Amino acid sequence: MNLSSYIWIIILAAGFSVRMGERNKLLLPVSTEESLLRHIVRKAVSVNCGGIIVVLNPSYYNMKNEICDLPVNIVWNEKAYLGMSTSIKKGVESLPDKASGAVIMLADQPDINPQVIKRLIKFYNRNNVSIAQVTYQGQPAHPVLFDKVWFSKLKKLKGDQGGKTIIEKHIDKRRLLHMSQPPPEDIDTLEDYQKIILRRGLIYEI
User: Fold this and answer.
1) Cα separation, 59 vs 63, whole angstroms
2) DSSP output for the chain
3) pTM of the model
4) pLDDT at residue 205 greater than cutoff 70
5) What is the mean pLDDT of residues 130-149?
6) Angle 126-131-136 (CA atoms, 0-180°, nearest 5)?
7) Across residues 47-61, what is the average pLDDT?
8) CA 104 from chain center: how many Å?
9) What torsion, rounded to 10 degrees, do the Cα atoms 58, 63, 67, 68 define?
10) Are 146 and 163 in contact (CB under 8 A)?
11) Taking 90 as the threshold, does the pLDDT of residue 201 lie above it?
């Protein structure tokens, strides 16, 4: 039995990119061929898992065009303005009954390594843990894998609460997968974005 087929990935991509001004950061290019959103989703698609849910914001309806040809389930979060918790709730509610766990993944980390996600799923399956989290050079970060026993609590999060809220309350249930490399950087501001694309050898005027 392939246990990985019961693990799903939920990609949180419904934010408003407030610190980017008028721009939606997920639509900005991170290569000559694709946007940040498509780049992240394609990485998730390369992982052996049960399926992928991408939570999008209907305020940016055209975002679906970036990924509609990929084998993912698009879910719309009409309450994205109420915070990250609503996207987590929407994603968890969209999981099939057979899902035994879910990887919570951010959409604004272009350097996330799919191999890390694969290792996290294997770590969870082999060690019989209920919360598995990656730590980079001792720094806990995303992605995080929650067993289905936490689905009800994930759906009860409020505002900008994320999975960290549950982890902090149940720290004894968490097991860490240690990685030696630095954590992937988030793109939150224009400066973050410019730094990352320059490192990739790109020049993009915005």
Assistant:
1) 9
2) --GGGGEEEEEEE----GGGTTS-GGGSBSSSS-BHHHHHHHHHHTS-SSEEEEEE-GGGGGGHHHHTTSS-EEEE-TTGGG-HHHHHHHHHHTS-TT--EEEEEESS-TT--HHHHHHHHHHHHHHT-SEEEEEETTEEEEEEEEEGGGHHHHTT--TT--HHHHHHHTGGGEEEEEESSPPPPP--SHHHHHHHHHHTT-----
3) 0.95
4) no
5) 97
6) 85
7) 97
8) 5
9) 60
10) yes
11) no
For residue 164 the two structure tokens come to 């960290």
Q: CA–CA separation, 7 vs 50, rounded Å?
A: 5
With a cut of 90, say whether residue 21 has pLDDT above it.
no
Structure tokens at 155: 């759906």
Residue 152 tokens, joined: 């009800």
Sign (positive or negative) of CA dihedral 54, 113, 50, 29: positive
| Cα gap 106→9, rounded to integer Å | 10
Rounded alpha-carbon distances, angstroms, from residue 75 to 80, 90, 97, 164: 12, 7, 17, 22
Structure tokens of 193? 């974005």
Compute the average pLDDT of residues 91-110.
97
Report phi then psi at 72, rounded to 5. Answer: -135, 160
List the structure tokens of 148: 């289905």
